[in-house]
Amino acid sequence: MRIVGLNNSHDAGYCVLEDGKLVEHIEVERYSRLKEDCGDSLQYFKDIFLKKSNLSLEDVDAWVSIYPERYLESTSLGKYDTFKYISKDKFKFFGHHLSHASHAYYSSNFNDSYILTIDSAGTEANGNVISSGFYIAKGNKIEKIYEIPGSLMSLGKLWGRMTRMVFKLQAGYPRGHQAGSVMAMSSMGDPEKYYEDLKRMVGPDFHLVDQQPPGYVKGKYVKPEDDAIHPYLNKYRLLAEDEQEAFNIAASLQKVTEEYIFECIEDLIKKAKDKGFYSNNLCLSGGVSLNSVCVGKIIPSFKDTLKNIFIPPVPYDGGLNIGAAQYYWHHVLDNPKTNTFVTPYLGEKYDSEEVTKTLETFSKKVTTKNNVNNKHIVDLLTEGKLVAVFQGRSESGRRALGNRSILADPTNPNIKNIINKKVKHRQWYRPFAPSVLEDYASEWFENYQPSPYMSHVLKFKQDKLGKAPGVEHFDQTARLQTVGKTQNPNYYELIKEFHNRTGIPMLLNTSFNDREPICETPKHSLDCFLGTDIDYLYFADEQILVSKKEEKITFVIPSRNNLEFLQLAYKSIRNLETKHEILVLNDASTDGTQEWIKNLGDDNLIVYHNQGPERIGIVGMFDKGIEMARTDIIF
Question: CA-to-CA distance for 503 and 475, rounded, in angstroms?
């Protein structure tokens, strides 16, 4: 039986279940290149799944989606003709939080579990808009026992408001939610300084946080300096102008968040007990479950009650269509729950012909080397190079898990600053994750819990501190991905090769992107590669290593007015991703040229002149002049 789940709202996409097995999950943002995008999921289903499978709409046995039904007809970003092709009465619709809960539980290997869902808000079958759902599950059935209305309290809404209105970061379409930056900030602040303030925000003052300020714009990018002023939160926005105060506010927010989630878990366990239900397992879903700092603390905090915790690969709204399809298959149709591992590698697979054709279109900008293997890649990594990997099917979810990843040596103490500055172009304090061989993870991390989808932040053990500084955050933690041989054989073997060479059973892994959604296609990967300072791109399935052709723009500056002409030359090429060579034909030390070059701090700029630190002498000037005779520009 083939079930297709559609979702056109933010984090839009489709999924396909065949006899209960999740075989494909496509997110619109990977193709539109706009984070958290809405879109016509049916059209994507026709263009991708049906086309390559040589099937038609009639080959789908059941259609599911989430409430409200109108999202299949229109969203804030567009109108859709879903019901023109599929009669509305053929759809089964399910509640927002019920779908979150289903995706978590039916993707787990538990036979029973408590389930807690927390996000901003979502519509249920009865029309209620709730921010949290409390469920219990046994066998193939799920039962809701409690809910929290979104108007009463919404932890997801609080984080959205704080991220945008206080920290001046993005909190949704089209540049994505930067709550992860706030979590990173929290490790460097004093959680007590604004604790009482944040405590009020999750209590009596939530209605003040929840209000939408005058001039608030949704559905398009707004520069922070042009954004609306929130009447209640502006006080904290001004305080956060000081970096340390921003860290303190973030730390207090994180502490209150953890307390709130722990209280919800306690309440869930108590209410389940009143119904005679007990379990050692907990499933979490909803956007707030991406708070991996909190997730890593749950089992140690509930060690007398809980032994296992599970967060699905797509816990945010991108996984709603999966949950709806799983609920229909298991709960409604009464098919038994299976405890097989749900792979996160559910996107498209691109064959060697497409990779080769794409490389040909970039032939003027890149060079390729064939028959490259893991040993060659480890050689590059241990030399300090950044290697982007493109292989297999793309990952579903927010985290790259080895198939669309940028990899680096975690023992390099400077690697975090290098990637943040030259590739990710983001805040200096943002950490990077380790992909750790499953067999060794418990030797490296305290309170170890499996984390195949990069869901847990755990502390390094004391004897391991400083051995992988590139992935060790300021508070001695890391958000790890555990990698097993059956989970991703190719990636496992690469990490194993690095371990054999260095004794370190992990690699630094960050998503293959630069402020855009994770790369989906070979073209996306080459565009990102060429637009950043990534050293190499590795198409692992084809064993092709890609490097950039060195490009230079050269200038000759005459023996007068050095600085004036130098500044004019630089202005014309400063935004180009190329190396710039400039030959100054006389003494550059007397007119401010040397000082200007030094203060510029542009690694792409090389200036040759007759005196000073870059002095090459009269003969050298002559030789260099001949070498640069075919210059692009001569003043």
Answer: 24
* Tally of residues, the chain: 635
More confident site: 129 or 341:
129
Instruction: Give the span between the Cα atoms of 570 and 562, in whole angstroms.
Output: 12
pLDDT, mean over the chain: 90
Cβ neighbours of residue 457 closer than 8 Å, sequence gap 6 or more: 292, 293, 295, 296, 477, 478, 479, 480
DSSP-derived 3-state class of residue 248:
helix
Give the per-residue pLDDT at 490.
Answer: 97
Q: SS3 for 391?
A: coil
Question: When comparing pLDDT for 95 and 222, which is higher?
Answer: 95
Residue 259 in this model has a pLDDT that exceeds 80: yes
pLDDT digits (tens, 9 = 90+) for 494-504: 999 999 999 99
Helix (H, G, I), strand (E, B) or coil at 349: coil
Contacts of 330 (CB under 8 A, 6+ apart): 20, 102, 106, 140, 336, 337
271-287 tens-digit pLDDT: 999 999 999 999 999 99
> Which long-range contacts (C-beta less than 8 Å, at least 24 apart) are formed by 364-369?
364/549, 365/530, 365/548, 365/549, 365/551, 366/526, 366/529, 366/530, 366/537, 366/546, 366/547, 366/548, 366/549, 367/546, 367/547, 367/548, 367/549, 368/544, 368/545, 368/546, 368/547, 369/544, 369/545, 369/547
* Pair of tokens at residue 585: 């034909």
